[in-house]
Amino acid sequence: MNKHKILAIIMAGGIALTGIYVSFAEENDELSFDLKFGQRGTQITKLQDFLIEKGYLNTNSTGYFGRMTANAVARYQKENNLDSVGRVGPLTRKAMNKDMRTLKEFKKKGDDHSTQNSLDVDGVYSGTLPCASCSGIETTLELNKGTYTLVEKYLKSDTLVSTTTGSFTWKDKNVIQLTGIATGTRSVMYKVGENTITQLNMDGNMVTGETAPFYTLKKVVATGYFVEDKKWKMVELEGKPITGSVETYYIVLHSKEKRLETKAGCNQMGGMYTLDGYRFKTSGVFSTMMACENMNDEQAFSKVLELADNISYSETNLSFNKARMAPLARFELVK
Prior knowledge:
Blueprint: H1 3-28, H2 42-54, H3 67-79, H4 90-108, E1 123-129, E2 137-144, E3 147-154, E4 160-172, E5 175-178, E6 189-193, E7 196-199, E8 216-219, E9 231-237, E10 240-241, E11 249-254, E12 259-264, E13 268-276, E14 279-287, H5 296-307, E15 310-313, E16 317-321, E17 329-333
Antiparallel strand pairs: 1-2, 1-8, 2-3, 3-4, 4-5, 5-6, 6-7, 7-8, 9-10, 9-11, 9-17, 11-12, 12-13, 13-14, 15-16, 16-17
């Protein structure tokens, strides 16, 4: 066999082996090459489907790598400690392929986190949703065994938009619908993703446009995530503004011992509490017995702690309530 034939066989074998390698890579990895702005194709569609499922992209897959896809990639990179460049290079592709394999395994085991078969939909979701007439609405949505509590508050405002409770139903395999909200007043449908929930428009479709990425709420660690182990300053008691200092008007809920520490004047107050979602109850409330000039606030707040059976909260505000009455006492986070 001459040198030319040997070389041809080696080259053919190399091409065949290369083909086998590429085929193997495509079979095991959804994203088989780097992706960037301006590209089109099935690889882009797979990328977009992944970003949508993870809550980074709030639009339908188009197969085109445009600005919204680039922004979604950048957010994924930032949250996964990757260089936020908005394109999919080797390191980002490796991380995404790993996440895609994890999602696929969940689906194979019947534990898909984005369907109604999953118990993980229960929990607290938080974020700031866009607002046409303000800078945003702090939103907390708690889902618990078919029921929900929705708390909304305008940013930079002391006015609580609403605290709404009710039940939710599955409209589709990964879309829930809240009940108890007047038809046409706001969107009541949310798409459930893995540790995310995305508010849909009034027609039940994904929101499009520049604000689309901001309609996703992310699951927080636990129900008491926002309120426990933080210092809150009292700003209102029984509808009256409180102007005292944070040293004399505050509350702290200590999660480890389920112990409350508070003041509403000069005496130190304390006791135990239980917190189950938004349901709140105290027991064994006590106070030191120093003689103070004005003990009206202490007496009033002691009564509030006895009466309160639920709380409302956002990232910066906390209210103690009785049923659906006006807040008995309101606090702001001490930063």
